[in-house]
Amino acid sequence: MAVPGNINSAGTKYYKFGGITLDSGQFLGPITLAYETYGRLNPQKTNVILIEHAFSGDAHAGGPGGWWQEMIGPGKAFDTDHYYVICSNVIGGCQGSTGPSSLDPQTGKPYAVDFPLITIADMVRAQKELIDHLGVHRLLAVAGGSMGGMLALQWVSSYPQIVKSAIPIATTLKHSPQQIAFNEVGRQAIMADPAWNGGAYYGREKPERGLAVARMIGHITYMSDKSMEEKFSRRLKDNGPNFKFSNDFEVEGYLKYKGDSFVKRFDANSYLYLSKAIDHFDLADNRSLPGNSEAAIRFLILAFSSDWLYPLYQSQEMVRHLRRKQADVTSLEIKSSYGHDAFLLEVEEQTRVIRSFIDKTYHGYRVVDEYEI
Predict the structure, then answer these.
(1) Beta carbons within 10 angstroms of residue 128's beta carbon
(2) 35-39-45-50 Cα dihedral, nearest 10 degrees
(3) In terms of C-beta density within 10 A (0-12 exposed, 13-18 middle, 19 or more buried), how is residue 198 classed?
(4) Is the pLDDT of residue 21 over 80?
(5) What pLDDT, on the 0 to 100 scale, is given for residue 4?
(6) What pLDDT, on a 0 to 100 scale, did the predictor assign at position 18?
(7) How many CB atoms lie within 10 A of CB 296?
(8) Buried b (16+ CB within 10 A) or exposed e, 163-195
(9) Apex CA 72: angle with CA 68 and CA 78, to 5°?
């Protein structure tokens, strides 16, 4: 058992395998997946939780510096005293898994935009190779927020017989035109940067300004009007306007900081590929998700009151869709002023609900739908 307050992790590991055939019909291989594990696998291998990261996330979900460190660990929502937690970076990314910045074995140079277009289903298909490699034949839960929630839903769609429960958080069954539009503006910002050079910028100047602007646009959608008012209001920097086209307001400086820091850890081409994948994600038809008669999968769907990137109505549609198929659904709207970022910040309420849901699922208790979105 892990020491209380600490987390068992061997750091980032890498699984390399031959490859997969993508939804496009193209073959991608060889493939490397970066992943981390926390806690201990029980002898029956029945205590496995797969954590899915959001758009710009990586495999380092738990432990110091982990993007969900407040949720993964002993006594936390994903309790590593009892469960074995896995998180992998998706293909198409740039945090250790194969993506457009990886070397193409055919040329010995980075793929760049010769990297094939991928889907959320392709990402899950690659993760299934990792799960098989680890000898895991049943997932107690698949959980994630935003793009991570899409991946959790795709796991249920692609491999319903091996998923016992899913926890999609602050997500949707498909993108709306507005959500696609925001992503397209970000993509155009990157491609309008002269340094993008048709995607062939590796080894030379990178399209940092375009990528920074794309991140600034995205970050606005992660917050809420209220959270921005509370954090910045209309406060000016340096005690007043300088009557120049520079960052007069604190919120301007904050967005610039977020954009500039993002380019140090993320690849512009990965931004293009991942944003396109989530735009094409669509599980809203009647055949995509299994009903209770097909697979007895439990769902916990969480949404946040101030999230306008993935607003409440999209989670409500998800709940109605699943209930029409007689699925076992528990749902909750969490009151928060943080906007979409609430899934990273509202730890206490998420912990209470998620820990209870997972414990009941693991021990075979019926999950009572005591909440309503």
Answers:
(1) 15
(2) -40
(3) exposed
(4) yes
(5) 39
(6) 98
(7) 13
(8) bbbbbbbbbbbbbeeebbebbeebbebbbebee
(9) 125
Residue whose structure tokens are 């926890």: 167
The CATH number fitting domain 178-279, selected from 3.50.30.40, 3.40.50.720, 1.10.1740.110, 2.60.120.580: 1.10.1740.110
**The amino acid at 314:** Q
Burial class (CB in 10 A: 0-12, 13-18, 19+), 58: buried
Largest CA distance in the chain: 67
Cα–Cα distance for residue pair 254/235, rounded to 1 Å: 12
Cα–Cα dist 335/100, whole Å: 39
For domain 13-173+283-363, which architecture applies? 3-Layer(aba) Sandwich (3.40)
The token duo for 277 is 């994948």
For 295-326, the DSSP string reads ---EEEEEEETT-SSS-HHHHHHHHHHHHHTT
Q: At what angle do helices 120-133 and 147-158 cross, to 10 degrees?
A: 70
With contact defined as beta carbons under 8 Å apart, do 218 and 182 qualify? Answer: yes
Q: Which strand (E) or helix (H) includes residue 51?
A: strand 48-52
Distance CA 67, CA 59 (A): 9
Nearest to 294 by CA among 328, 330, 317: 328
Where in the sequence numbering do the catalytic residues fall? 146, 307, 340
Using one digit for the tens of pLDDT, what is the confidence trace for 262-288? 999 999 999 999 999 999 999 998 677
Start-end ranges of CATH 1.10.1740.110 in the chain? 178-279
- Beta strands 48-52 and 78-79, pairing class: unpaired
Cα–Cα distance between 47 and 223 in angstroms, integer?
34
Residue 163 scores a pLDDT above 70:
yes
Which tens digit of pLDDT belongs to each residue from 289-309? 876 656 689 999 999 999 999
Tokens 């709306």 belong to residue: 176
Q: Where in the chain is the domain with CATH 3.40.50.1820?
A: 13-173+283-363
326/72 Cα distance (integer angstroms): 31
Contacts of 166 (CB under 8 A, 6+ apart): 141, 142, 143, 152, 153, 155, 156, 297, 298, 299, 300
